Give the backbone structure.
Amino acid sequence: MNASDRLASLMPIVIKDDHLHARWLNTFSYLEYVGFRKIIKSQRADVLSRAFLNHALEEGGHAFLLKNMAVKVGGKDFDLYTPETMLCAQAASAYFQNLDHGCDEKFASLPDFERSKVVYLYVTWLIERRALDVYGRYKEALGASALSAQLDELLGEEVGHLRQVEAGLAADNPDHATHAPGLEAFEQGLFETFVAALAQELAPARPSA
Ligand SMILES: [Fe+2]
Ligand SMILES: [Fe+2]
């Protein structure tokens, strides 16, 4: 089973338990918040365009939306990002930080300004594809529900981010086809590590075979 299917197989276990479900939502809210923070910090202010600002604000909006959903499902304890209100918070954070550092190392030979641009494009490209996969499958697992409907706008914005970053890669990075497979495999490995940590954390809640 690949990591995406494995994660999807854990979703029903999470969704049927309000406390776990709120922790799940708060974990993804946290990852959106980290994305928001990283986008803002990734570029010098003099080159921070409307598109960058809009992307950051939309990721901040996703963090807020998922946080609101976490509070609705789990109560006001989920207003903060304390470790006990998330699922394997360290592994979630490591996924994002390692992806960022790995992409940064891959382009270490470039001058700072160019590197920050290309790293932003590749990290965004990898994250948006993963986000669409995870949120899409989560929406499927929720079925027809009020929570599921709240994800529509978020999913639409993630599609927009992916299209924008694909256009950026096509315009600025003619070597995309050369770099893409290695970076995809790198992200896949990090995601597998995160899903394994999540599966371990959820093991006590899983029905025994
Ligand atoms: Fe997002
Ligand atoms: Fe996004």
The domain at 3-203 is CATH 1.20.1260 (Ferritin). The chain has one domain: 3-203. The helical segments are 3-15, 18-42, 50-74, 89-106, 112-142, 146-172, 176-202.
